[in-house]
Design a protein that fits this description.
Trna Endonuclease, Chain: A, domain 1, five-stranded mixed β-sheet, 5 strands, UPF0102 protein ABIC99_003722, UPF0102_YraN-like, Restrct_endonuc-II-like, hydrolase
């Protein structure tokens, strides 16, 4: 695995690490037949709330064409509960907000949807299918 550095402190940047984790997650999901629709979908912050972002939006290979909204989390080690445990209720709310915004842009009927998480702790990758719901 390559290391992206910021050129100043010699450490890997958060953006570089996040991008590398998203690349790794995307490759894993594509190997399982999912097709990339959009990457890093962002919704601007409103007057009373932070905006939201979806790391990856993919189409599942099922016959219903399920849209899969994926949050990628990465940690160098399995500290403090690991990458999956770092997805707070507030973070889930922002992901759901962005997903609703994305769906409103679609024409016609909305496809089935789900929220997955790809958690990367060091070299260990875990794909959590339907990790949470919008309800």
């Amino acid at each position: 695995m390559s290391r992206v550095t910021d050129g100043n402190a010699g450490g890997a940047t958060r953006i570089g690490i996040g991008s590398a984790a998203e690349d790794r997650a995307l490759q894993h999901l594509q190997r399982h037949g999912l097709v990339l629709v959009q990457r890093n979908y962002r919704v601007a912050a409103g007057p009373s709330a932070r905006g939201g972002e979806i790391d990856l939006i993919l189409r599942a290979p099922d016959r219903d064409g399920t849209l899969v909204f994926v949050e990628v989390r990465s940690r160098g080690r399995d500290d403090h509960g690991g990458a999956a445990a770092s997805i707070t209720h507030a973070k889930r709310r922002r992901i759901i907000l962005a997903a609703r915004h994305y769906l409103q842009r679609l024409r016609g009927e909305w496809p089935p949807c789900r929220f997955d998480v790809v958690a990367i702790d060091g070299e260990q990758l875990e794909w959590l299918v339907a990790a949470f719901d919008a309800g």
